[in-house]
Amino acid sequence: MSKKSATKSFNSILWLIIFFVGVSSCNTYKQSFKKQKLSISPKYERTHQESKFTTYDASNITIGNLEWKGRYWDKIFEYGKDPLFRHSYPWDQEGYPEENVRLTDSCIEIWARTDGTKGVLFSNFKIKYGIVRALVKLPDVDGAFSAFWLFRGMPELDIFEHCGQWKNQVAVTHHWGYAYEKGMKKSTSENTRFNELFKPTEEYYIYEVEVTPYEVIYRINGVVTRVMKEGIPSHEQHIILNVTTGYYCDDIPLKEDAVMKVKWIEVLEIP
Q: Whole-prediction pTM value?
């Protein structure tokens, strides 16, 4: 065997090992979540001091589609001056009326409606490293596509994705690569996280992502659902919670309005 052929064979074997290790890791977290006795109470112990988290809820968040200067990603957010969140995407403002994000005495409501309008809560501020978590109850309306994610160009961190017709499960997906437009996007496999005791449309759960320079850790009520050491973001990202419809949920039209209820969003920034 020539030196070139041997090198090629070695590289092929190495990639197979990496692939199977990755699949095995995904299955480990998938099986682990399936076996967990998830507590109804979303409280759990953390090594981080709770006082360091900034909490956003219906009592203190401000919402407004501030005017972005230059490209939409490049606006420098000013705390205390600019609204904390907006009710539409900077790149897509059609079909996201202000009334589809409601602040009540108990929670933040994000609505998708039978008239085709959608709801999104999009942070005007950004976070690079740290923890982002939210206490959320998901809609149970068939065709309602709910998501909680971090994004500002690739990678995309999908803390959860859920279709209203799903029972006892969400998807936890990590996307990375160069760009959607060029088809140069990679995604994780084995994304479903199922547990018979998990009732995301009936109970509130804490959905969380921890981003460090070395890994990204996803959790539900403190249970690790995925760890990524590839495709780690090195830039600041926006926090997004949204409810819509579409192909991901089989293009099922809504028969009634669907609402995601968010008790709070907490952010811990790590320098």
A: 0.84
